[in-house]
Amino acid sequence: MDFGLSGRVALVAAASRGIGYAAARELAREGARVFLCSRDEARAAEAARRISDETGAECVGLRADVTSDEDAARFVGEAHDRTGRVDVCVTNAGGSPATTFETTELEQYRRAFELNALSAVRLARLVVPLMRGRGWGRIINVTSISVKQPIDGLLLSNTVRAGLTGWAKTLSTELAPEGITVNNVAPGWTLTERQDEVAEARGRAEGKTKGEMIAGWASQVPMRRLAGAEEIAAAIAFLASERASYVTGVTLQVDGGWVRGLF
């Protein structure tokens, strides 16, 4: 299937590893010119180099913290200055810490909102005017299955990502007449470097091995395994494509059947 992404310019945030990296690589495989960012300049450059070497596509790694107005503007501005266009924007950021109501301070809510909601809003405010000028655009937000079925112990994610989903739905309606789609991808349990680190840390706290923690998560999934980051990336690439031209305002869960709800 030709996704029609050859020559398109795609921005992918927080893409030095994990789902962000997999998304950048998948878009590059489809022929997009990819600009990725990370808070660590060296890691961003190395990720871009690996993607370019593997795919042969143009891939540029830039340092940017998506919680910073200045960094986000520089990231988008550099991509636009080099190419004259921005067609696809994948908003992505790290997850908030696991907390409960009793253990969560007000400042943690503020930080979580900045990281997992305002980071996406900030990028959208920068790229939408550029997409409007061409009458075509794709915004894809990487969220979590917690927006479909809240996860115990992840109070901040359950709260903030649900708010982002409401914002994205509203924005999708406003932009639909202009050829710009807005969608969310909601990953389930995914075996990324960060999830591996979480498994090890939680395993130590619970007296379990990392393997036992991962097996426990997998047992909750009908497919009895965690996703690979490339499986999440495939959904992102589809939503970025010409083939998804009539799909907007959707939250697509990629979770191996973990969410039990009908919608």
Which consecutive residue ranges, at least 5 long each, have pLDDT under 50? none
Q: Could you tell me the number of beta strands?
A: 7
Enumerate how many helices there are, as a single number. 8
CATH class type of the largest domain: Alpha Beta
Terminal CA distance reads 27 Å
**Any idea what the radius of gyration is?**
18 Å
Spatial order of the strands forming the largest sheet: 3-2-1-4-5-6-7
Instruction: Quickly give the structural class.
Output: alpha/beta
Number of domains: 2
Which fold name corresponds to the CATH topology of the largest domain? Rossmann fold
Shape type: globular
Q: What's the CATH H-level superfamily name of the largest domain?
A: NAD(P)-binding Rossmann-like Domain
Word description of this protein:
The protein has 263 residues and is of the alpha/beta class. The chain has helices at residues 18-29, 41-55, 69-83, 106-132, 155-175, 193-206, 210-219, 229-240; strands at residues 9-12, 33-38, 59-63, 88-91, 137-142, 180-187, 251-254. It has a seven-stranded parallel β-sheet, sandwiched between helices. The longest helix is centred in the middle third of the chain and has 27 residues, at 106-132. The chain is globular and about 55 Å long. The model has no long low-confidence stretch (mean pLDDT 95).
